[in-house]
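Entry:
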Amino acid sequence: MLYLSAASLFLQGTAHAASAVVTDTGTTAWMLTSTALVLLMVPGLAMFYGGLVRTKNVLGTMMHSFSAMVIIGVLWPLVGYSLSFGHGILGGLIGWDSRYFMLQGIDETIMPTHIPEYVFAMFQGKFAIITPALIAGAFAERVNFKGYAVFIALWSVFVYSPICHWVWAADGFLFNLGAAGAIDFAGGTVVHISSGITALVAALYLGKRRAYPNNVMHPNNLVMTLTGAGLLWVGWFGFNAGSAIASDLATARALTVTQVAAAAGAFIWMIIEIFHHGKATSLGVASGILAGLVAITPAAGVVQPSGAFALGALAAIICYTAILIKSKLGYDDSLDAFGVHGVGGIVGALALVFFIRPAWMADAAAKVGGSWTVWQQLGVQATAVGVTIAYAGLASFILLFLVEKTIGLRISENDEMSGLDHSMHGEHGYGLINLN
């Protein structure tokens, strides 16, 4: 959090000539590696989601993730970086700095964290890519590709960038809330709650898949889903440990708690399944891994391994319950994007306050010249969560409505029967096609 604060302060106009700050090659090498690891998560997500859908939809589902790499990969250097980390305009609702258009103003810039600003911009760009890709799990198997492409482009500009600015930019109001701001080390609110709530809104707005839940819709390839979960776990080390914007003790702490939380989430999910169904499933292990990883994301810079274990275990219990409730309520969040990312993000963002390092709380109290309690920080966290839910939910509904009424988002029944692979892309992922 402190390192991200320093980076954000710089991006808000604390000028440093290239000659005044020397590049730390070790930190730069780690941040380059972290950037690559976060990008690796996107094909990992494609495999995770692609394995869970029916055979006729595997390529179409994987294209949702890969197209995010392309679309947001273009938008980020054009406007995304500026909107997220530029000077606050419109009362701080959004950022903007014309120097960041096509990143032309940072060609020789070395940041106070001793890395080229190019590296920071690209690292943050990978977060901007994977966040809208997560949403696609909620409406898998039933969306028009053109409509989806337009939706994620608009969502990145009008939902992701403002929330990113509020939480991570130095003049963002959530960044400055309370004694030390809302804690979101690597994206609990910015990434997981924003995408999870959008996923829920999209699932409700677009409605159920044809014949859901009467027809059983089996995953086409759980081997691919498990492989995707493994790639996500590996990539998450860059996601969390890279967010320290350093290569030091803070980095080691973030990496360690990420490992512990992921393992704890999977372990507790397995235990629940054994007691509930008599056997542990591969899908359960994959889901538990993700639940633990999501919950530790906002907390990776402030908790110790014991806290990470608790957050991973708690997320597994609550996310498992949320998925059971989904089945009873009957809404069709196809791949449980809300049940894992939305719910897990909320759990992590709120419950982290009970496991914060005492030294962090002491530093926060010193900033306000008095005391700062866990309950006060919980109020800050709840405010950040509430603002993210309200804004992402409302803005996403408006964007879904506009795209559906203009380009179209929900595919026809005939196209849904044919499958996304054929109807949207004219291809087939496998030789044998099941049109159930």
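The first strand starts at residue 87 and ends at 89.
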